[in-house]
Amino acid sequence: MPDFFFSKATGRNILVGIVLILIINFVVFPYFPRLFGISIPLSSILDLQFGFENDFVRRLLNILGEKGREVYFLSTLCVDIPYAIIYGFTYALSMAYLLKRKAMYSFRFLVLLPLLIGFFDLLENFGILYLLQNPFTYDEKRVPYISWANKMKWIFSLLTILSFLFVWIKPTKKT
Question: Which among 5, 32, 75, 80 is least buried, having the fewest CB atoms inside 10 angstroms?
Fold first, then answer.
């Protein structure tokens, strides 16, 4: 699988991904709820927590109300799921590009780290969709699994950042 990313790791592909990420972060995420006339505080979004408990989820689902849950559901379905795929691929391409530029092919496995962020983000998103679809009848035994996916997303995010720093500062081998 890393070979696919090495073959597609071009400046143009990475630039397209970065532009999409920036548009989603600075245009779509902030303004999507406003299109529906509501404001969802960032502190209450499950995606931005490092894990969460049943009590927090229950309170959040109540505070959001029906309209807030609907907007959160649509935002997760229409924006956050594609976003996880876009950033996972863009960061994997960026890692492959950097490894290729520094001729560090023995570290090609690092390309998988951003994909794991995206994978766990998708698991988390599907779990959040389940919670939003069943705000009063969801199975509380599922919340720890959704929370686990959330924590894994953040752990792999940190590992990816550290990997980028490692590759970036590691001296290039002289041949």
Answer: 32
